[in-house]
Amino acid sequence: PDFYIGDEADAAVGYATKYPIRHGVVEDWDLMERFWEQCIFKYLRAEPEDHYFLLTEPPLNTPENREYTAEIMFESFNVPGLYIAVQAVLALAASWTSRQVGERTLTGTVIDSGDGVTHIIPVAEGYVIGSCIKHIPIAGRDITYFIQQLLRERESGIPPEQSLETAKAIKEKFGYICPDIAKEFNKYDTQPDKWFKTYDGKNSITKQPFSVDVGYERFLGPEIFFHPEFANPDFTTPISEAVDSVIQNCPIDVRT
Question: Superkingdom, according to UniProt (predicted)?
Answer without folding.
Answer: Eukaryota
